[in-house]
Specification:
binds heme C
Length: 109
């Protein structure tokens, strides 16, 4: 009888654990997708000049780790370009430009 009690306790415990795991995986993806978006765009369009960590500086690209620009100003540079940086308004939608600008903020040291 004691064994059965322990068993049912364990079963209830594992069930409770798997329950909360299930909850986690349903609530996480949405937040992740949003985060991945800007990062994905960055890795597709920006690493060639700025590098994976923003500090490569190819073609005179500014170091994004030390850039003091606010998000709005970054959106402007990305949209319209500046000197050697090409404009992205024909390549990316406003939403994507905003997402990638926000991602560059995370490269800051
Ligand atoms: C062709 C190379 C090239 C590519 C590709 C490129 N950049 Fe740039 N980026 C530059 C250069 C060069 C500058 C400096 C412009 C200047 O001299 O005024 C710059 C400047 C910037 C700045 C301004 C930094 C500051 O502090 O003034 C931001 C923000 C930026 N880039 C973000 C991006 C993002 C995001 C992408 C991808 C969507 C991207 N860049 C793609 C070359 C590039």
């Amino acid at each position: 009888m004691k064994k059965l009690l322990i068993f049912s306790f364990l079963a209830a415990f594992t069930f409770a654990c798997s329950q909360s795991d299930g909850e986690k995986s349903t609530s996480e993806p949405t937040a992740e997708v949003k985060k991945v978006d800007g990062e994905k765009i960055y890795k597709t369009y920006c690493v060639t000049c700025h590098g994976l960590y923003g500090d490569m500086g190819a073609s005179g690209a500014f170091n994004l780790q030390t850039s003091a620009l606010a998000v709005e100003e970054r959106i402007n540079v990305i949209t319209n370009g500046r000197n050697a940086m090409t404009p992205f308004k024909d390549l990316l939608s406003a939403d994507k430009i905003k997402a990638v600008a926000e991602y560059t903020m995370t490269l800051k040291k």
